[in-house]
């Protein structure tokens, strides 16, 4: 059997076409970055990364961290299928959100020119 590369590909099978990260916690500064090695492999494979976040603010923080990790934002929008039940923040009393409310698509910088111009998150409502 052929040995698999770090991105899961073998000489006869390609690596992933898309990786999805649900609420990866990249915007939480108190958490260890468990995703660092995974993001490095995904970036080296040239694979786009689709992420979800609960709020636009989290998306903005995650965008900054992922850009530092070698990604560029290719597009973002509200998820048409977020978690149906709103939740209240455990730390901010008036913060109500829906899990997976925002989607963002990132591409490795090496692919950025193929995807068009970088988008910035819209201003908060």
Describe this entry's structure for a reader.
This protein has helices at residues 36-44, 56-68, 112-115, and strands at 19-22, 49-53, 71-78, 87-88, 96-97, 102-108. The longest helix is centred in the middle third of the chain and has 13 residues, at 56-68. The strands form 2 sheets. Strands 1-2-6-3 form a 4-stranded mixed β-sheet. It has a two-stranded antiparallel ribbon with strand order 4-5. With 125 residues, it is an alpha+beta fold.
| Proportion of residues in helical segments | 10-25%
Residues in β-strands, percent: 15-25%
Contiguous uncertain segments of 5+ residues? 114-118
Secondary structure class reads alpha+beta
Please supply descriptive tags for the structure shown above.
single chain, alpha+beta, two-stranded antiparallel sheet, 3 helices, 22% strand
Q: What is shown here, in short?
A:
The chain has three helices and six strands. The chain is an alpha+beta fold.
What's the arrangement of secondary structure elements?
Elements: E1 19-22, H1 36-44, E2 49-53, H2 56-68, E3 71-78, E4 87-88, E5 96-97, E6 102-108, H3 112-115
Parallel strand pairs: 1-2
Antiparallel strand pairs: 2-6, 3-6, 4-5
């Amino acid at each position: 059997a052929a040995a698999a590369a770090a991105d899961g590909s073998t000489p006869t099978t390609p690596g992933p076409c898309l990786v999805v990260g649900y609420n990866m916690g990249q915007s939480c500064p108190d958490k260890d970055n468990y995703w660092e090695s995974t993001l490095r492999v995904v970036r080296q494979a040239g694979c786009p990364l689709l992420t979800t976040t609960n709020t636009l603010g989290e998306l903005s923080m995650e965008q900054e961290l992922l850009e530092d990790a070698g990604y560029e934002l290719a597009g973002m929008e509200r998820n048409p299928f977020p978690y149906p039940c709103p939740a209240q923040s455990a730390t901010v009393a008036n913060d109500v959100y829906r899990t997976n409310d925002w989607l963002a698509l990132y591409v490795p910088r090496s692919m950025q020119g193929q995807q068009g111009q970088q988008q910035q998150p819209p201003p908060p409502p």
